[in-house]
Amino acid sequence: MAIKIQWADRLRLSLAVLAANTIAAMVRVLRLGAASVLPGTIASRIHPRALALLASQAQGGVVLIVGTNGKTTTSALLKTILERQEWRVAHNAAGANLENGLITALLANTSFTGKLNADSIILEVDENVLPKVLPQIQPQYILALNLFRDQLDRYGEVDIISQRWQKAIAPLPAATTIILNADDPTLGYLGQKLTQKVVFFGLNEPENYLDEIPHAVDSIYCPSCGHPLTYQGVYLSHLGDFHCPSCGFKRGDLAVNSSEWPQILIGLYNKYNTLAAGLTALEMGIAKPIILEAIKNFQAAFGRAEELEVAGKKVRIMLAKNPVGMNETIRTVNEINRDRPSPTTLMILNDRTPDGTDVSWIWDVDTEKLAAKGGTIVVSGDRVYDLALRLNYSQQPEHPFQLIVKEELSEAIATALEYTPPGQTLHILPTYSAMLEVRGLLSGRQIL
Amino acid sequence: MNPEKPQLTIGWLYPTLMSTYGDRGNVICLQQRAQWRGIEVAVIPLDQTASTAAFENIDLLVGGGAQDRQQEIVMRDLRGAKAEAIRHQIAGGTPGVFTCGAPQLLGHYYEPALGQRIEGLGLFDFVSKHPGPDARRCIGNVVFQLTASRLAADLTKTLGQPPIIIGFENHGGRTYLGEVEALGKVIKGYGNNGEDGMEGAFYGNAIATYSHGPILPKNPFLADWLIQTALTQKYQQSITLSPLDDTLAMQARTAMFKRLGFDGK
Known about the structure:
The complex is a heterodimer. By secondary structure, chain A is α/β, with parallel strands linked by helices.
């Protein structure tokens, strides 16, 4: 698959790489920022096909990972697995998943002659960017994790995204492997429409069924005929074991038995992430014992479910950037706090571009479930009063809790730490840009 | 029927199909504000499994936004006796708040970006059209002044100044009013179509708007007007609601006004 690069192209590419990497180094030295996007912008200006030329050099293959939630954690785990196999992996670690972020990630692993120093490439790709990068990168593997509603201001609707993916994937070679979440009806339907090799992961653990379908669901209607789907059971949001009583559409056959697999971190969503990375690695030819070893030793990916120790208290940061993500985070926090009275939680809502400028989604989150645990909830962020209002309307007379509103983030963190009982963990639930701020404050330096 | 122990039945149109953008917040807001005042509340989902009788016994209607595909499923169900019940309710003065997709289906028709025209109930004299898949969506924080005559008069009396609504709009479709009264006049944002400066529509006691946010929690006076109107209709006597502490809503409004460079007056 390695395309022979013409010398003129090579020259121009190395010029692009040189310029971009020099600037990246300068940005880092001058502490102007993390330089996770800018070099890619420069390189693609100098050579519009920089992404294609760099990606085509990966002998072990290119994996693109898409989905609303879990991209960063899953790609970090897959990278860990491949590295255990002693592969050199290029990967966009900082969650920079738009086009220029992808090129930047490859540039970091490229010599000044334009040679890629990696055996394989793992790129997490923004759901809207996938159709744009597919004509440039010909991946051997595409892993689709899930499709939930997220940042509707940018993307519009789940159905439309899935249709765009289908169109973009259709021209790829038949040998391309598409790894899909079978429990997501929209992705199951996508799998039916594709001519490439499709394999499914999913759960078969009825003991983890939810009691009821949460409100923040997008597709409990058959993507084929529009009839309401029947669920044997729901694991989270609209993910579950479903079939359509009208047209017979049903969940695809699972390639792995989830009950035989361990998982990374906490929360059922991380079981999905584990299976997704595991099945992809199996498809890439990695032996199962190596995968299981890697899972056992995996450390938390950047900011997701990260545990820190601050001022003698334990702090766990759990990204919560859309309704499904926040519902699942609340479910996990409540499980952790099951036997603990008066837990403390800090929630931070920003509405910058990486978070989505529309904050309506907090009303689709079952914040009532967090409020019902009692204790203290501190709120902060650009839209602190919107979040405060949401929690104020989550009150239930039989479950009182204390709501503290702090505009200033550093003050919010200090207050939340103060209210956290000794020996307990403070859970921080930030949106994306808020997560970067929290990390910056907690580690004593701003990272962006 | 005892107004000493008032009871409010809220009908929620197709909760699983028409709640893409947090519009459930309107239901939560109405329910809590009523319950905080000792009013008993029942929230009835008006969906495929609901009987026509359920559609008929409602004091207040709420409908939210939907994806185009979901909207088609709704319109396949909302026909015949169910459609007649909704028509009868709204024409008879049952208050309601309909956001985004919901008003599109209350108008004459909606033309989606792709596919067939979806016929509406024709209750509101307006039409909605999507200019095509490549057209820019109307997205952003929106501020408008309520101008619908009776509603504006009632609220100006309560507030001591013209009522200003704040929300977030996110719509591909554009709505063009016929004879029906506009809900308000846009101060910041697009409104119905980004052309004529009008936002939403008002008919009977029903509000149609493109404003999500959701609209009611940050405009609590509008929520209270709906509750009060519903109870007045139901018990056929004037009902006054006790005041609630709306400090957080006012702070949320002030913060957004400040950001938009608008003094909120």
